[in-house]
Fold:
Amino acid sequence: MDTVVKKLLHEAGQTFSEESDITLKDQPGALFRLLVLANLLSTRIASDIAMAAARELFAAGGGTARGMSKLTWQQRVDALGRGHYVRYDESTATRLGEMADLVQEKYNGDLRRLAIESNRDKDRAAELIKEFPGIGPTGVDIFFREAQAIWPWLRPHFDDLVLKGAERLDLPTKPDKLADEVQPKDLARLSSALVRVARDKKLADSLKD
Structure:
C-alpha cells in the first residue's frame, strides 16, 4: 500500500456511516439508516450537521422504516433541529416520512429486497434508489460509496468527488487502478477519506508533506 494511502486511511478513513453511529451490516435497520444519512447529506448543508441530525433521528426512534413512519412530522422536525439541521428541517421531515413509507410499502421495510429487485445491477439499483423522495444522483453516490463495504457487487464505486480527492493526492484517477491501492474491504474507507480530501485542501496538503 502506498505511503500516502496509509496515511490517508489513518487520518481520514472513518466512513460517514461510522461517524453517524451506523454499524453497517447487510440488515434492514442498518441499510435504512444509511438511506436516511444519504438523504440528509444530499442537501447543501455541512456534513457534520447532517451526521448530527442523523444521530438525533435515530435516537428519537427513526432508525428503521417503521420507526421513522411512527414519528410525527413535528418529532422529525424537532430531531433535525437538535442536530442544527434547521435550514431544510420542515421539507426534510416530510421527505423522510415519505421515504420511510415507500421503504415499507415497496420493500416491506427491508432494503435487501432492493438488491434482489435490481438483480445486483448498479444502474438498476441507482434508478430504484432515486425513487425515494430527496434522493438524486448525489444521494445515490453517497449510498453506494458507503454500501460497497457490505455489497461487493457495487465495488468499486468512486464518483467524481472521490476522484477529485485522488487527483489532489496524485493517486490514480481510473477507478480500477485506484481500487488496487487498498484491500476490497477498505474501499468505502478510501472513498470517504478522498471525499474529505476533495473538500479540504489543507488536509490534502498535510497528507502530501
Q: What stands out?
A: The mean pLDDT is 95. The longest helix spans residues 89-107.
